Amino acid sequence: MEKQALILGGGVFGLAAALELRTRGWRVVLLDAGGIPHPDAASTDISKVVRMDYGADPLYTAMGEAAIRRWREWNARWGEDLFHEDGFLVMTRRPMTPGSFEHDSHAFLTARGHPLRRVGAETLRRAHPKWNAGAFADGYFNPQGGWAESGRVVARLKLDALAAGVEIHEHRPFHRWLEEGGRVRGVMDAHGAEWRADVVVSALGAWTPEHLPWLADRLHATAQSVFHFLPQNAAEWRAPAFPVWAADIGTTGWYGFPANANGVVKVANHGPGRRVRASDARMMPDGEEERFRAFLRATFPALADAPVAASRVCLYGDSFDGHFFLDHDPEHPGLFVATGDSGHAFKFTPVLGPLIADAVEGRPNPWLERFRWRGLGGTDGEKARAGGNK
Q: For residues 53 and 60, is the Cβ–Cβ distance under 8 A?
């Protein structure tokens, strides 16, 4: 008999899971509270970083390597490059030292055979002239990596899911769980319709602690600011001279992107953020634009006075330890939780589907151990480092 999965949420966790489960013979129904791409979802924007650089962490590095291979395959299958392999430039103001994200990423990837190029101040000045080379002493360039057109990727995955036979119902906000006999059987949406399945996959991102309040001690929504700037000559802000970049990201969190097809340069900060409730109105804090411009004056002076094309408050669905939650809820049989993006999940989209599906089906997968169900202090991995992907 055909197994049935109900997936809540049409971001990359939900769509990737839907595609893979459908491929494995499940009947899959996916509900989203808005349209897909949802304008408020973390997956939605003009760009996200795609990289394998994760300090000396073998798990995330291996996942990044596999994801990049599949991003290339997706480009070929789609017939258009939604993943742009422009490389990843990582710079620091001081020489790289052991224990730092930058040093450990360089050393670990080099040991794995990746052809990284060391970049000092003189190379930075010559090859990447938009940088303030006098302020940056050390770093490296990884040609394997870049960025994905995130909103367009979500839209494409939706089309792929529909073509595969996934039923997608948009504008179906969650109302309550349907529980019978001590088991989660489905949900009722805000319109009063009931949706039932053998397993319910909650891929609700930043909305998880609102709808699964018993996880509020481990998962929370964090607001992060993003600005899109419009420089005068967009061609000067594109790869190879201006690829995806990180500026002391291990300590300051600053990173960003080359100009896209519309000439927009996106700048973001992967910092502590502000804890918020996902359903509340999103407000840009006072002084944020000036904070971003102060960074630009010190790092990319020619961009410091560029007009703002757009700004956005992006919500992370943070876990307490920075790692994903991909497991059955042991206290709510019938419910599977796929969440905890923690600001660094999008790059792994091509490998998330099989990872989630293996966890749903109980198949062995060596990558799943870190993402199993856990309580506070119950993880054996360190907090995911320098993980921004916006």
A: no
